[in-house]
Amino acid sequence: MKIEDLKEMEVHLNTLQSLELINVINKLGLKDKIKDLVLGQGVAGEKKLAYIKLQNDYMNKVVELIETQIPKKEYDELLLEEQTKVLESVMTEEVAEMGAKLNKLAEEVNTISANEGFDLFYTAVIERFYSNKEIILKALSSIYEIKVKDLEKQSIANTALMIKKIMESPDIQAFIEVFL
Question: Domain of 56?
Answer without folding.
Answer: 41-127
